[in-house]
Structures are given as structure tokens and as C-alpha cells.
Design brief:
Helices cover 38% and strands 19% of the residues. The protein is α/β, with parallel strands linked by helices.
């Protein structure tokens, strides 16, 4: 499929359009996702900033922090969670303005290759991330090529996340490359961590699709399985992508997004807060931005 023919499938397009019009996401952000500061009413930039993301814990945290920083500068912000394919297509066709959770070069590599000529890449907002297969540290194997010999101890399965995630496609390729007799189970980030918790509570063996940064590394003792075939690639970056024309249409918003950058450790602070009972993810992000005023000022200084 060429870049010129890259389009949302009708079903995906309908889902994205409905979510965008509703101004909410499956995470239940609802009205909070479209909340604005009082300063937004006086913003000189036309329209609102539409942020799109895949519903991983890391992407949720990054998107809401970027939202909070933009709101501090007087912008109205709408956030919408969609599949990986829909995220790239929405940016390529101007249905969204930006994302701050493009995992490159491997995880979202296929999506990016199809859409890269139709969007602008502002570069990494975070470096040193990673994806791979993850097990509790009490599991006595250390490499993906050892999984086959212990398939029954893992219940012949790898617990995955949403089927549209780039890491899932890479994992299917890894299963073939390593000739693993394990089935990749679709789910979500939440179902994956729930399965991980249940296994750890019962000291059972489990292997999941995992990534860094993620709050699970602070909660449990885990390890990546070595990847001698290099199926999962090396270190990844998280890039900020914007639609073509955003710099001309909303130069101040573009500048803030261009300045946005932080570390995995800082992201994990937000993710940890998001895991508390009855957490308000938008408010957690706003609190974090308020408490890191010096860092955030570096994102927005000289942007007006």
C-alpha cells in the first residue's frame, strides 16, 4: 500500500470520527478530556489542539501532560484514543493535530512508513525506551529462544495487548522467527497487567509483551528476555508527530509541542499516580506540570 492510498478502513474511520466528535476516549476521560483553562477563551490561535494517542499507560500519561502544558498556555485541547493505525491516518489526513506517543523506529515502524510523507516529525520527546517479552524475575529462563522448551509452564501463551499495537505485530514475527509453540493472546494494557499480577500473586510463570517506561517495573521485579535474533530491535524513541500545516495554522501550539521533552523516570511518576484508586489522569498530569514548573517553562519559553 502506498502513501497516496493510505486511508482509514471505513470501520476504523467511523470509530475515530465518533470518538473525536464525542471528545472522549475509552479510558473514560469524557468532559475532562475537553476541559480548558479560563485563558483558553482568550487564545489568539484559532480552533483547538486535537491530540491523538493509543491507550497505553505511557501514551496516556504523555498525552495528558502535553495537554496540561498547552492548557497552561491558554489552549483548548481535545484528546482522543484510537488504534495505532488510526492514529497515523488521522494525522496524515488532518483529522488530528498531533501525537506525542509515536514509538519509533520499530514499534510503530510500519504505520510510520505509510504515513511519514503526509505528516511532520518533530523528533524525540523521550529517548531510551524499549519493548520486548517480559517475565517475572523468578522465572528461570533468560532468553526468548528458551521459551519453546518451557511452553507448558507458560500455559502455551504469550499475554499481549490490543491487537492493533505495533508490538503485537512484532511479537507475531518473533513467534515465527523463534518457532515458538505459544499463542499470542490479544487484550489491552489493563488486561495484560491484570494477568501479570495474578500470576505473580500465585508465583506462576507468565510471559507478556512489555515496554519501558511502564509503571509495572516499579511495582514488580521483572526482566526482559534476551532477544538474540533481534526481533524487537534496539532502543526506541518516542517522537512527537504533527499534521502538515500545524506550524502555519497554530504556531504557538506547534512551538510548545516542539519543545515538549522529558525522561522515562519523569513519565513513570505520572503513570504511578495514574494507578492509584479512583485516579483522575487529567488532574494528575496537571498536578505534575504544576510541580515541575521549571522543566515545563523550558518547553514553552519564548514560544509566544
Amino acid at each position: 500500500m502506498t502513501n497516496k492510498t493510505f486511508r482509514l478502513r471505513p470501520a476504523i474511520a467511523a470509530i475515530f470520527a465518533a470518538a473525536l466528535l464525542a471528545g472522549c476516549s475509552p479510558s473514560g476521560g469524557g468532559a475532562a478530556d475537553t476541559a480548558t483553562t479560563d485563558a483558553a477563551a482568550s487564545s489568539t490561535d484559532a480552533g483547538e489542539v486535537r491530540l491523538v494517542y493509543v491507550e497505553w499507560a505511557s501514551c496516556t500519561a504523555a498525552t495528558h501532560v502535553a495537554q496540561a502544558a498547552l492548557e497552561q498556555q491558554g489552549f483548548k485541547v481535545k484528546t482522543t484514543s484510537v488504534s495505532g493505525a488510526a492514529m497515523y491516518s488521522a494525522l496524515a489526513h488532518g483529522d488530528a493535530d498531533a501525537t506525542v506517543c509515536a514509538w519509533l523506529p520499530s514499534t510503530h515502524g510500519n504505520y510510520y512508513e505509510k504515513a511519514k510523507d503526509q505528516l511532520a516529525n518533530l523528533g524525540p520527546n523521550m529517548t531510551g525506551t524499549k519493548i520486548g517479552l517480559v517475565v517475572p524475575d523468578y522465572v528461570t529462563i533468560d532468553s526468548i529462544d528458551q521459551l519453546a522448551a518451557h511452553a507448558d509452564q507458560f500455559q502455551n501463551r504469550i499475554v499481549g495487548i490490543d491487537p492493533g499495537a505495533g508490538e503485537m505485530g512484532i511479537t507475531h514475527e518473533a513467534i515465527e522467527a523463534y518457532k515458538l509453540p505459544l499463542k499470542l493472546i490479544d487484550g489491552s494494557g489493563a488486561t495484560m497487567t491484570a494477568a501479570l499480577k495474578d500470576a505473580i500473586d500465585n508465583q506462576q510463570w507468565i510471559v507478556v509483551t512489555g515496554w519501558t517506561p511502564h509503571w509495572m517495573w516499579a511495582r514488580w521485579q521483572l526482566k526482559y528476555l534476551a532477544d538474540p535474533k533481534g526481533s524487537y530491535g534496539g532502543a526506541e524513541d518516542i517522537d512527537t508527530l504533527v499534521r502538515k500545516g500545524l506550524q502555519q495554522d497554530m504556531p504557538r501550539a506547534y512551538a510548545v509541542l516542539d519543545g515538549f521533552h522529558w525522561t522515562p523516570e519523569q513519565m513513570q511518576q505520572v503513570m504511578a499516580a495514574d494507578q492509584k484508586p479512583d485516579a483522575d489522569t487529567q488532574q494528575n498530569a496537571r498536578d505534575w506540570v504544576d510541580n515541575h514548573a521549571e522543566l515545563v517553562s523550558g518547553w514553552v519559553s519564548d514560544k509566544s
